[in-house]
Amino acid sequence: MKKLILITALSLVATGCAQQTFVMTPQESEPTTEQSHHFFISGLAQKKEIDAAKVCDGIDKVAKVEVQETFVNGLLAAVTFGIYTPREARVYCKA
């Protein structure tokens, strides 16, 4: 039982948050769209796409694109031993 608690604690400590942000126009706003992407086995041989130009009705209206692994996403990945590894994706459009 102690080994299981230790392994679980080490898994939680080893998980971290990660974020990739691509800023085209610096401005603060709420995301126009937010999607959860579901990956399995750490995303091995998988890809997900969001057409930001389509979401914002034109490439010139895209302000920022962001992909993030939140703490909850990392926790889910740790609990499932990397089998399920979700990510959050957000697209921000110019006002």
Mean model confidence by pLDDT:
83
Beta-strand content estimate: 25-35%
What is the ordering of alpha helices and beta strands?
HEEHEHE
Write down the Rg. 16 Å
- Number of helical stretches of at least 4 residues: 3
Q: Would you report the number of β strands?
A: 4
Given as residue ranges, the uncertain stretches (5+ residues, pLDDT < 50) are none
Q: Domain count, please report it.
A: 1
Query: End-to-end distance, in Å?
Result: 54 Å
Q: Biggest sheet, in brief?
A: 4 strands, antiparallel
Q: Determine the fraction of residues in helical runs and give it as a percent range.
A: 25-40%
Strand order, sheet with most strands: 1-3-4-2
Overall SS class: alpha+beta
Please describe what this structure looks like:
The chain is α+β, with helices and mostly antiparallel strands and 95 residues long. The protein has one domain. Helices cover 27% and strands 27% of the residues. The protein contains 3 helices and 4 strands. It has a 4-stranded antiparallel β-sheet with strand order 1-3-4-2. The longest helix has 13 residues.
